[in-house]
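sorry for the late reply, my laptop died twice this morning and i had to redo everyting from scratch. anyway the thing you sent over, i finally got around to it. pasting the sequence first so we're on the same page, its 353 residues, then the predicted structure underneath. double check i copied it right bc i was rushing
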Amino acid sequence: MTDSTSSSVTDTRKLALANWTTLNTPEAWHPIILQSLGSDAGFRRYFRFQQPSQWLAVDAPPGTEDSQQFIAIAALIHAQGVHSPAIFAADPNQGFLLVEDMGDNLLFRAANNHNADLLYHQAIDTLLQLQGCADNPTLIPRYDRALLRRELEIFSEWFVGKLLGHPLSTAEQQLLDHLFNLLEDNSLNQPQSFVHRDYHSRNLILRSDNQLGVIDFQGALWGGVTYDLVSLLRDCYLRWPTEKVTQWALYYRARAIELQQIPEVDAKIFLRWFDLIGLQRHIKVLGIFARLNLRDNKPGYLQDLPLVIRYTLEVAQEYPELQVFAHWFARTLLPLAQQQEWYADYQSAGDRP
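ok and here's the structure:
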């Protein structure tokens, strides 16, 4: 949820949020003093109270953040039996919310080699609950080809062009166009379901009742069924051994078939869905992390780029139809990345001690 590079901010919106919170919380017998928890990859900021409270104050500027969508998706998730933050008060016009504080015990911090199977099975079961949502096109936009392409082109513009400083030739643009078509086809031709869109270890919280809480879901879409699974298992912030990832992916497949949420697809086909949608996500994330640094002044995400490069090359090198892209990336982009201050050896990125 949070960008660790963020610090406490005093500004007019924070003061307005503190005044609004004082008027809208049951604990308003004292003036509310807010302490920053930082921001997420969007423009939302989160604040705890100086006095202990079960609530968080959220600043979600209406020019960039859709609080109505957040409220609606929170209700949808709750109806599926999944724990989303309860909303005590909201003013979408100002972009102010008072939401349940589910604590800091993120899956990112809690998971280790001893409890990983238990926690990741729990996270997968929670994902299957989310994917039980009925399709509601008026609430959940389509993850269609046009949106997939816009996301993939963030890689071309921000990672390749602006961060690495490499202008794409016509031949390189054609290479990427062919790849993007292949990845779009993979996403659109697998079963479609609710997509949280950032279902990973920093957006899952182990609550005091040992249930998983799910946050940062307001960008939900209706798209490829393996998207959230790969976000979880090939997490941009936390890496697990390949054999463990495969075991967990096949656990999801078995449970999803049992629940009749996907057809009885062959394991090899399912893993191809999973791998290619992961490549799509990681190519997009390379661009997004570059953009967060260059446009939004959030350099903390740069340290995660080597792991995303590792995922990208590992999958691209695995499939014959991706070899041209893998070779181009390794020959052209990797030497440029190696010259950057943020670069670390991608081949060991994310390895656990």
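Residues 267-294 form the longest helix (28 residues).
thats about all i looked at so far, will dig more tmrw
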